[in-house]
From TrEMBL, chain B:
Residues 125-144 have a biased composition (Low complexity). This is Zinc-finger domain-containing protein. The chain crosses the membrane at residues 164-184, 229-252, 264-282. The keyword Transferase does not apply. Residues 102-115 have a biased composition (Pro residues). Keywords: Membrane, Transmembrane, Transmembrane helix. Residues 71-144 are annotated as: Disordered. Coiled coil: none annotated. It comes from the Bacteria. Signal peptide: none annotated. It comes from Streptomyces inusitatus.
Amino acid sequence: MTGTGARVMGLTVTHRRAIALDSVDLDFGTGVHGLLGPNGAGKTSLIRVLATVAAPAGGRVELLGQDMTAHRERSRVRRRLGYLPQEFGFYPGFTVREFVAYVAWLKEMPACSVADAVERAVERVGLMDRIDAKVKTLSGGMVRRVGIAQAIVNEPDLLLLDEPTTGLDPEQRVDFRALLREVGTACAVIVSTHLAEDVAAACEQVTLMESGRVAFRGTTAELRELGEATPHDAPDGTVSPIERGYTAALRLHRASSWDPGTAPDTGSGSGSKAGR
Amino acid sequence: MSGWHVSGPLAERYASGTAAEAETWSLEKHVETCGRCAASVSAAVRAGAAGPALDGIRAAVLAEARRFPAPVPGRAGEASPAARRVWPGGRRARGEAAGAPSGPPGPGGGHPPVPEGRRRRERVPAAARRAGLSRRAPSRASRPGPGPLARLLWAAGPALRPSWLTALALVLGGSLFLAYGVGYDSTRPLLLALSPALPLTGVAMSYGRYADPLHEIAASTPSGGLRLLLTRTAAVTLVSVPVLAAAGALLPPPATEVLKVPGPAAWLLPSLALTLAALALGSFVGCRYAALAVAGVWAALTLAPRPGKPGLPFFVTELPEWVSGPSPQTCWAAAAVVCAGLLAVRRSSFNRLETL
């Protein structure tokens, strides 16, 4: 087991007959990667394929250097995977501790290390004082933090978080981004979000998705520079450079992919075209 | 090092947390190499306000060390640099403080990290704080790990949920009520007709995005897929078979020869075959629909009235012949094997969410 991160080649994903990802080539190494894009851009489809819960319609997926077609490799990778879905449920009677321990058990962690790993994970998301509370008694933001705790309980080498900041208040977001940066020093973290500020604060690399294609790839600084270089019509100070870069990259992508023969009907809005 | 040593008053100031920052630094640096001063500082700290708390920690650490005689393996045992950070404000757990002035380390060798916890810093003496003191620490020793029973229940997952157990209890109670309360003669054959299909409902509730709120997370783990489904099916079977057998045993003896039915051993194979059929079908259409379909077909075959055959229902007259005797049993066994083979061929379809 030598590989790190994730790599996809020619990845095509369909969702209810619509194309969610259209022959995408991407690779993610160690560090925090932001997956940015409007709703329906294909972010969730990509994350779910990387989490091995959805099957691609075409292309190759390589996680942690392993090809994902064989059962043995997939199990091996899954042990080192952390995944927070956009939505997840829990068994009504479970406490935070039981919930996280249950996921640790599903991830086949050695039984003797589970108890410690659970406390560490819960501590890292700042829920130590509620560890023995029932999950159903927690607020939405706390449940999301429980979700993050279950994702990091096995100290994964590949951490996939789908819209993790939803439901977190601003202060919790700041804490969460700090946690992300720190986890990202040792492993590959892929965070999907539609908030440009999440990317600005926590990610080194940005992948901007639009209509199932990659609209922009680069460092956060590059996206910011793009935003600063682009003239904008909004009054000064109301839009951050990173948000301007986001908009500018999207416009550039739409302009370049506008080819009446092949391009999807992108229109001018920011709504969803392909995918869900 | 020079001839400087920790004086008695300094040790006391350090223990009470009133020593100046610079003094604290030189003291801590010094006790790393000077055993005599380390001992005197230790004594001062133990005699101070933090003494009882330190004793508690020491006991907890020793208890922990005895629970795991060998060092806890690799990544999970030692706190990695990444694991030390705690969420609020990015404060770090201080369990790793060097030179904890509480005497030589315990026999276990590896101190488990004792994080400080999340409380705002209160007036805990500096020395005690560096030793990783927290009110929570002693309770960590008695922290409940997941016991074997918990793991067994976890394996069952959502399969053994109250609604299904209630259904099982209803069948048990209902058949007893029919037999003793109403005096319905055919209860025994009726139970025989229901028994093979009952585990199916549990299977339907055990896996897939409709049945399992944790499904998306479970599907991304190595346990996900067919293995988890089989584990849960086994749990369902293990609970339902004894209950149904007990129900059969509690019923009154058959009134006539016609109503005599084979015992629980007879419906085990049919039940297994139906369950495997549901699982195999489930690899195409999802467990919920598959279990419903198989149970529906079984119920239609056994319970529905037959035209042209008035009198006793089918499950009294013919069902016992379907399940008793060597040749029907062989057929059921063959069916089970076929379904199991199909399931093995289709196993990879359970790795993905779409069909489930």
